[in-house]
Amino acid sequence: MFDLDRWREIFQSINKNRLRSVMSGFTVAFAILLFTLLFGIVSGLSNSFKSAFSDDAQNFMKVRVWKTSKPYKGLQTGRRVQLRNEDYNYIGKEYEDRIQYQSARVFKNFSIKYKNEANVYRVRAVNPDHQFLEKTIIDEGRFLNERDLNERSKNIVIGRLLKSDLFGERPALGKRVNVSGSSYLVIGIFSDEGGDSEERKAFIPITTAQMMYGNNDYLNEVVLGYNPNLSLDKAIAFGKQMERDMREKMNIHPDDRSALSVRNMAEANKGVGIFMAILYAIVILIGSGTLVAGIIGISNIMIFVIKERTKEFGIRKALGAVPSSIVGMVVQESVLITTIAGYLGLSLGTYILSLIGNSLEENYFIKDPSVSPEIVIGATLVLISAGLIAGYIPAKRAANIKPIEALRAD
Amino acid sequence: MIKIEKLHKSYPIGKDSLHVLKGIDLNINEGEFVSIMGSSGSGKSTLLNIVGLLDGHDEGNYYLNGQLIKDLNEKKAAVLRNKFLGFVFQSFNLIGYKTALENVALPLYYKGMARKERLKVALDYLDKVGLKDWANHLPNELSGGQKQRVAIARALVTKPKVVLADEPTGALDSVTSDSVMDLLKDINNEGMTVFVITHEEEVAAQTKRIVRLKDGLIISDELTKAAKAV
């Protein structure tokens, strides 16, 4: 139903009454601008929370041990607790259905040397699953595999920055490096979102490390990925149960956190989830408050505008305008103004977000602030319906005033 | 053209009601030039509003162009106004942000006429009232007499059956009043039924028939010298 004459009437009315059109548009544009900024910044905050934990897998768990802090079953305080292969295998078997990934960790600091370049780096001896647990990104070559483990191969996967320290721009893949006196073959180069220090590390097979350095079956940590099908609560319960079982098995007091503890990403996730839910609830409250204020603003202006135009409507009716044509004209005008103004507010908001985005990320822990298309579409729909309602109700009332009364109005 | 039988109208004022028209009988034929005279409060404006379908009546019958007017909703009334009636108001009632030409063309817009055609027709009517050169001026750039001419052109543009004029000279000085009355006479001479409301004897004397109203009743109804002279 495109009526060119109707549009001409509307544009004429808007054009000849610029101040009031701009005023009503401004209310809406400003409300939407605030709404966009608010949502953008909060979604940026949410992004930073997500990425703060994205260094490791979302289902990451870690079993770490230290010294006992409580006497138990005749054993003294201060006893050094040691994880062994046997514990690793026990965990894998006991909780098989609740585990997605599993890897042991042995930490070493080794001097790594290539030609004349040498430095001391942190070397982690791990299982192949470790790649997924730490979200290690393979840039070249491959990560460690089962065969490396079985053959106790002297293969090494090095971080991007470690590679550039030693090799510079030269290719490293397939070259041999000297690790604390032994020759290792570089089979892969990785990067990691966890930051520079992560990319100055290297990985070797756990079996190789155990054989070559101490010839024992000691482990520093066991890291796990819980089955992602578990709910957060079940995953938390799983961590607690494993903690109890392991303490029991290793003769540790049930409450001795220092001796053995399980760090569980599920708990952090739950905390962050609750925090973000509360934050979003507040934002939705404030955001819809802003929108409602904008809607009330434009409704007020529309009521005023229509009062001002009552006489004009009376004239139009005397000349043969049916009420619906007057309502239609006002509503169309109102929707047009709200839509354009809303779009302007939205664009301005998005533009401001993109301008300040970088400095927010550098200075305020807010990453990539932006509004999602769903929110944009939703807010636009809200606006259009607001324009409809804001125009319709007073217009309907004005159109139903008898022309004789409308003509008397001044 | 207009036939009114025992017309009553009262307005509620608080709990009471004010009985304004107390049984009016009036018959106006096609081509007549009638003025309704009366002091303020006599009910003449109410009569015009009812005849002009701007207001409803309580009792009695009203036939416009042979059609019984009863239980009209706003939509039907609007269509009938557009088709049969042209209005000229004391305060001109032009739309301030539209040019003279657009004001004249507005009734044709509601009739559904295409833009080009209605602007052409409107310009013809502006020419007829001698304001062709002022077509693109806004109302506040025109004198009172010019505004009323524009309003008359607007009343005529749909070729209505009746032109209703409510104190058409009320806001004008005597010279421009005469020119506006001359224009209404010309229109009547071309066969248009003209229905004027006034409280000025000089204005009424220029019409062909004077109906005097007092306290909601017709007290006299006679032809003027002007009519007898024809």
Structure commentary:
The complex is a heterodimer of chains A (410) and B (230). Chain A has 410 residues and is α+β, with helices and mostly antiparallel strands. Chain A contains 13 helices and twelve strands. In chain A, the strands form two sheets. In chain A, strands 3-4-9-6-8-7 form a six-stranded mixed barrel. In chain A, helix 2 (18-52) runs antiparallel to helix 9 and helix 9 (265-308) runs parallel beside helix 12 (373-400). The longest helix of chain A has 44 residues, at 265-308. The mean pLDDT of chain A is 85. Chain B has helices at 44-51, 74-84, 100-111, 115-128, 144-156, 174-189, 201-205, 225-229; strands at 2-13, 16-28, 33-37, 59-64, 67-68, 85-88, 162-166, 193-198, 209-214, 217-223. In chain B, strands 6-7-8-3-9-10 form a six-stranded mixed beta sheet, with helices on both faces. A four-stranded antiparallel beta sheet of chain B has the order 2-1-4-5, with helices on one face. The longest helix of chain B is centred in the last third of the chain and has 16 residues, at 174-189. The interface between A and B is medium-sized, with 28 and 27 residues.
Total number of distinct structural domains of chain B: 1
Largest sheet of chain B: 6 strands, mixed
How many H/I helices of chain B? 8
Nearest-integer average pLDDT of chain B = 89
Biggest sheet features of chain A? 6 strands, mixed, barrel
SS-based structural class of chain B? alpha/beta
Give the tally of structural domains of chain A: 2
Poorly predicted ranges of chain A (pLDDT <50, ≥5 residues)?
A: none
CATH homologous superfamily (4th level) name of chain B: P-loop containing nucleotide triphosphate hydrolases
> What name does the CATH topology of chain B carry?
Rossmann fold
Low-confidence stretches of chain B: none
> Percent range for helical residues of chain B?
25-40%
